[in-house]
Structures are given as C-alpha cells and as structure tokens.
Amino acid sequence: MSRPTSHLTIKALLGLVGLAAVLWLALFLPSWSLDYWQAWAYWLVFLVSVTAITVYFLKQDQKLIENRLKTGPIAEEEKGQKLIQAFASIFFILLILVPSLDHRFHWSSVPAYLVVAGDVFVMLGLFAIFLVFRENSYTSVTIEVSSEQKAVTTGPYGMIRHPMYAGALVMLFFTPLALGSYWGLIPFLPMFAVLALRILEEEKFLAKNLSGYNEYRLKVRYRLIPFVW
Known about the structure:
mainly alpha
C-alpha cells in the first residue's frame, strides 16, 4: 500500500469511526435509553451500508473517496451554498433528534413492520447512492467541476439528472419511520426544500462550467422525480 493510499484509507476509516460515534450519541443521548431497538437497528443498517460503500470505493475508485471527504458548509466556496449546507445539516440532525425525543416521551407509536420497512428503504436509498457513485467518479459533496470532467449521461443519470439526491431523499424520508417516529417526518419537508434549492443552484453552475451539461438537460428532462420535476 503506497503512502498516499494508506493516508486516504486511514482518513476514510477514521471518518467512519467518527460517524458511528456521532450517530450513536445523536440517537441515544436524547432518548436517554439504550432500550431503543429501532435506533440500534437503524444504526447498524446505516453504518454497515456506508462502510460497505466506503470499502468498495477505497478499492475501486479512490478519487471518489477523496471528493467525498470534502464535506460540510466550510468546504463550499460560495456563501449561498454554505448557507444551504448549514440548513441541510440542521434538518438532518432534526431527522435523528426528533425521533429520539419521540421515543423518550412516547409521542407516537410506529408498528414494527413499518419500522422494518423503513430500514429496508434506508438501505435502498443508500444503494441508489452507491450506483450513482459507481457511475460518476466526480460526485463530490461540494459543487465543483474538474478540468477533465464531462457530463455523465449513463446509468441512473439516464433517468433523472440528480439521482444521488433522489436516493438521499428516499433514505431521509424513511429514517424517522425506521426510528419509530411519525413526528420525525416533519423536518423532512424543509430538508426537501433545501435540497431542491441546492439542485437549482447546482444546475446553474453546471450549465456554465460542465462540458455537455446543457445538451444533457435537453435529453433528460426531469431533475429529481420522473414525470413530476
């Protein structure tokens, strides 16, 4: 293993450890209980899926891993995108925090079959994201374009223009249900609005800076939801 490869692997694995710890705290501290099987199931489903994706691309596409490690509002260059990322982070935290508080104070009761279905759809959403990553090595957390980059039109991109966001929205919508909460669905609405705004801003940037993107927009009509938008 070369030194740059080793450094990237360590950085990615440390990121996974940090994610596991932060997610665990976000799930179990507000609930103030370890007797929360829905949270244990979600924690395992999410981490096993993300770890499998990370390990796959550490072997197959390290360039993608490098791009994905640049994350958060600070990584964005434009003030508007910093703000969008900040709000997206807040609403994601609320998608975890509200169900955890819901469990503590017994605001709602989701049947077990719906919790399991939520976990299944969380996995499907993450699998859709995996397919996008496999198709497009330039998928980054920040809005940017490399000099050699061209518009990707194959795979999931042949159906909608932003399949990664579609997969993310599936995962996000079913997260509160997987955690046994109906009230947790409320933060999904502003999260959807924030992602829709990001998509619109991203398209403006790509139309100006990404080779072949304007032609691609004419070919693939829908941004996020086929036959709707």
